[in-house]
Amino acid sequence: MQQPLWGIDLGGTKIEGVILPTLQNPEPIVRTRVHTEAHKGYDHIISQIKKLVDEMKSVSGLQPAAIGFGTPGVLDPILQTMKNCNSTALNGQPLKKDLENALGIPVELANDANCFALAETHWGIVKQQFPDARLVFGIIMGSGVGGGIVIDGKIWNGKHGIAGEWGHIFLDASGGSCYCGKSGCVETILSGPSLQRYYKQTSGNELTLREIVHTALTSNDAAARMTIDRMHLFFGKAVSIITNLLDPDVIVVGGGVGNIDSIYTKGTQSLAHYIFNNRLDVPVVKPILGDSAGVFGAAALVVSPVG
User: Fold this and answer.
1) Which of 183, 180, 148, 186 is nearest to 167 (CA)?
2) What pLDDT, in 10s, does the model give residues 57-69?
3) Domains and CATH numbers, the chain
4) Measured between alpha carbons, how far is 239 from 167 in angstroms, rounded to an integer?
């Protein structure tokens, strides 16, 4: 008999937990959350996670054999400490070791983009429409840009734990400086804040991304149209690097920027132009799990450990 799958999505403001019956049945037995309260420091985050797990045990009457964690950064495979976390209290900390000590069970860790890709593979759009897909690339384009690689139902993490981090590939110098210390990264051009910044630089006005898209569709605002056309152009250029390198069976685009419908028409036309092939066959699709993807993907780590 299969054990229920326990997953926890560790976010900057909330920590969400779920218990799923099996990999074949994603109807939650329990789904609950607590506040992260990250400002109180690393040890407090660990205590909040333990509080959540104890609550999940009490509500379900179950005991976990292991728990998967989606994290806002990655566990360095060599040093076994966290890095690249926007929840900075986690950086440099042996999170896996400390969670196993606090909870008394094994844990699996993967970053949020990997969990997104894993969830959409096992339960989302890939499962529904492309069940024979072997290599899935999951894109996150929101406040930042990230990605995850799933091969045969398992995350591919890489030697440095950074596999899929296409947001920090050099794309174009016009993007300017990136927080990572480099310049012209994909994230400096295709993230939501970067698109908004380009519009402001071009027009002198400040709009949200949603407003820019609406304006480009409904008015003669040349700056809005330039912003969206530039997004299409660079989406194709950036994703062509991934396509040429990995040649995935499916590309799933999540995050706020991924909600822009023209990504899947004009953006993919740009991709078709830039890939090293005479046509574009790989489907570029929207996810269907919404805000469930992170925590569901974490739960899937229990049976699909990081490769």
Assistant:
1) 186
2) 999 999 999 999 9
3) 5-117+291-300 (3.30.420.40), 130-287 (3.30.420.40)
4) 10
